[in-house]
């Protein structure tokens, strides 16, 4: 995820700025840049790749100043390259930005009409031009006016060559913290960047701004009213900060899901018409209606997201879908007919089997669409069009937030396709209304983490575990089992609940915990029957049920609840307790959850 550092009041400011960027490296990034304010103008260097590569091109004499800003970028709009890296400049203004400007298209047109020239594909560049356009000798005023014209999220740091000792920061939806020093002041998206200089900080809230000079910090709201903020003392060490106070990246990423799901649909839904816009798809309505068949290619967790997609697209958009392991698809002779599109689903965008399967599909005439997290990854580049999930870097090897991001995107795609064929405006509106409630409902499930930890204690020493689900929750059973296998090394299988009687039932005894996803939907009665079969054989039952359920709860040893939602959105909630259960069991067994044995985050070799 992008990182911001700003410092004013330190001679040779480039050194501490680069040091601050290094402290943010753990967040993941694909390019970096630095700009300082000098009386003559802004001096800026940026480069694709690592901070080391930026250091190779900069001239430290040229950067000799005491006030500057720096950035590590994780691409969201446009490829990771030098042009798209931050800072972005306009005249004497330099801006670094985290977040997404949703109305950047309209602003870009307006600014281009005024003669501003755009050098990058980013949404951030509009901010630089906008602030420059509104500047009349007072930077904070220009920033305030610019931000009133902007929709979306931001954490920004801005400098101007005419006020070369000043940094203006502002936030809406993207974190920003001010570090208060003796003779210098600091601004960052993450305290890790400034911890080496000060432990006295002010956390900005949404709609707040800070103006920093070496002498002091003033805080205002976006309407320029002064506000008094408390100075807090940081007691965490660097490792704790990098994990956001969580014990592991995996847990941090599980807890990020209310935000990452929101980021996946933010700016893409049209609640008033029950429709969706997915700009990156580059398909006309006519092309969308001409799709006759969809093949989803993926591996691992992404494959399970693809299976959820199959249930959704077939049921709501009525288009035949096949989901295939990419490794199988690439080595057989797949049939691709006219009107077939291939969706390649991959967090990293680098998994070799998925990449090669995509190339094979392309060779045979399919239109290929990438659903990836890493902007500019090979799959993103080689697919004809794509949709990014915007989950931010996923560091834990066991994928969690990327999965819910992928499912969110596949839900949006279902609605996009369905609204052109089978889904009414009213139904579309109902789905979108409920989708907007999902982040809060995920929070409600996360609130049960301690309770799930208690449940985990009863099963941490077991050797096997069975996961059952039906319909759209069958892929969730597979994903729950995969999570447990990956990080706890307990043998686990996911099954469609009704298939249990065709084999796994033979294994059920008091040593076989069975996790059953049994939410209130059309198959509730059936799944209750499956639970009774397990109980009759003295299997231990952990059930994931809809709040208020009493029937299956009464048959279970342990119950985890999820809030009621539309059946099609259930996977976004039902997977959360299974991620937490796997996590807590692995921790109780003393395993290294972020680096499980034998597994890699991106499998780029066969
Ligand atoms: C590896 C990872 C899994 C991931 C799979 C597919 O096995 O350990 O977590 O689901 O690759 O990765 P992708 O980046 O293509 O989604």
Describe what this molecule looks like in 3D.
This protein has about 600 residues and is α/β, with parallel strands linked by helices. It has 20 helices and 26 strands. The strands form five sheets. An eight-stranded antiparallel β-sheet has the order 3-2-4-1-10-9-11-14, with helices on one face. Strands 5-6-7-8-12-13 form a six-stranded antiparallel β-sheet. α10 runs parallel beside α14, α10 packs antiparallel against α17 and α17 runs parallel beside α20. The structure holds 6-O-phosphono-alpha-D-glucopyranose (G6P).
The gist of it:
The protein is α/β, with parallel strands linked by helices. It has 20 helices and 26 strands.
SSE order and pairing:
Elements: E1 3-8, H1 14-23, E2 31-38, E3 41-48, H2 51-57, E4 67-73, E5 88-90, E6 93-98, H3 104-113, H4 124-134, H5 139-148, E7 154-160, E8 167-172, E9 177-180, E10 185-188, E11 200-203, E12 208-213, E13 216-221, E14 232-233, H6 238-242, H7 249-255, H8 257-265, E15 269-270, E16 275-276, H9 285-289, E17 293-298, H10 300-317, E18 321-325, H11 326-329, E19 340-346, H12 352-363, E20 367-372, H13 378-382, E21 385-388, H14 401-419, H15 425-446, H16 449-459, E22 464-469, H17 474-488, E23 491-496, E24 513-518, H18 524-536, E25 540-546, H19 551-555, E26 558-562, H20 570-588
Parallel strand pairs: 17-18, 17-19, 19-20, 20-21, 22-23, 22-24, 24-25, 25-26
Antiparallel strand pairs: 1-4, 1-10, 2-3, 2-4, 5-6, 6-7, 7-8, 8-12, 9-10, 9-11, 11-14, 12-13, 15-16
Helix pairs in contact: 3-4, 4-5, 8-14, 8-15, 10-14, 10-17, 15-20, 16-20, 17-20
The structure holds 6-O-phosphono-alpha-D-glucopyranose (G6P).
């Amino acid at each position: 995820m992008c990182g911001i550092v700003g410092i004013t009041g330190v001679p040779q400011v480039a050194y501490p700025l680069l040091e601050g960027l290094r402290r943010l490296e753990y967040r993941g990034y694909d390019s970096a840049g630095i700009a300082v304010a000098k009386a003559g103008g802004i001096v800026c260097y940026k480069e694709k790749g690592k901070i080391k590569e930026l250091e190779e091109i900069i001239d430290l004499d040229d950067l000799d100043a005491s006030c500057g800003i720096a950035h590590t970028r994780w691409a969201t709009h446009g490829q990771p390259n030098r042009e798209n890296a931050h800072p972005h400049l306009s005249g004497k203004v330099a801006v670094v930005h985290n977040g997404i400007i949703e109305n950047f298209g309209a602003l870009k047109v307006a600014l281009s009409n005024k003669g501003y020239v755009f050098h990058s594909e980013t949404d951030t560049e509009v901010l630089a031009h906008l602030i420059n356009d509104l500047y009349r000798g007072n930077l904070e005023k220009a920033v305030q006016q610019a931000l009133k014209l902007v929709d979306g999220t931001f954490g920004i740091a801005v400098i101007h060559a005419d006020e070369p000792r000043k940094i203006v920061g502002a936030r809406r939806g993207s974190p920003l913290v001010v570090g208060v020093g003796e003779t210098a002041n600091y601004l960052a998206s993450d305290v890790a960047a400034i911890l080496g200089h000060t432990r006295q900080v002010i956390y900005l809230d949404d709609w707040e701004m800070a103006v920093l000079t070496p002498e002091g910090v003033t805080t205002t709201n976006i309407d320029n009213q002064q506000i008094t903020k408390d100075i807090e003392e940081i007691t965490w060490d660097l490792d704790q900060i990098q994990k956001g106070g969580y014990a592991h990246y995996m847990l941090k990423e599980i807890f990020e899901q209310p935000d990452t799901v929101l980021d996946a649909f933010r700016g893409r839904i049209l609640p008033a018409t029950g429709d969706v816009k997915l700009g990156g798809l580059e398909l006309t309505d006519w092309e969308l209606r001409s799709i006759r068949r969809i093949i989803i290619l993926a591996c691992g967790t992404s494959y399970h997201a693809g299976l959820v997609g199959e249930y959704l697209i077939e049921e709501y958009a009525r288009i035949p879908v096949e989901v295939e392991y990419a490794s199988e698809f690439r080595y057989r002779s797949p049939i691709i007919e006219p009107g077939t599109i291939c969706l390649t689903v991959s967090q990293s965008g680098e998994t070799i089997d998925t990449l090669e399967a995509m190339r094979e599909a392309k060779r045979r005439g399919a239109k290929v669409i990438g659903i990836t997290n890493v902007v500019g990854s090979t799959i993103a580049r080689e697919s004809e069009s794509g949709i990014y999930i915007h989950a931010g870097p996923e560091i834990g090897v066991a994928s969690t937030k990327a999965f819910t991001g992928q499912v969110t995107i596949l839900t949006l795609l279902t609605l996009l396709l369905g609204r052109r064929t089978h889904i009414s405006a009213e139904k579309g509106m109902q789905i979108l209304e409920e989708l907007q409630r999902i982040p809060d409902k995920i929070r409600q499930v996360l609130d049960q983490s301690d309770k799930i930890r208690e449940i985990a204690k009863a099963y941490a020493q077991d050797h096997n575990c069975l996961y059952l689900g039906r319909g759209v929750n069958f892929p969730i059973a597979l994903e729950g089992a995969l999570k447990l296998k990956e990080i706890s090394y307990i043998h686990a299988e996911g099954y469609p609940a009704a298939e249990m009687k065709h084999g796994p039932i033979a294994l059920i005894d008091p040593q076989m915990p069975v996790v059953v996803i049994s939410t209130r939907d059309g198959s509730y009665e059936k799944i209750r029957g499956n639970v009774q079969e397990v109980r009759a054989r003295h299997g231990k039952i952990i059930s994931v049920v809809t709040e208020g359920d009493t029937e299956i709860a009464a048959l279970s040893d342990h119950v985890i609840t999820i809030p009621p939602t539309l059946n099609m959105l259930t996977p976004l909630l039902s997977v959360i307790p299974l991620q937490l259960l796997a996590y807590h069991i692995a921790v109780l067994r003393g395993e290294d959850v972020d680096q499980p044995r034998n597994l890699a985050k991106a499998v780029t070799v066969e």
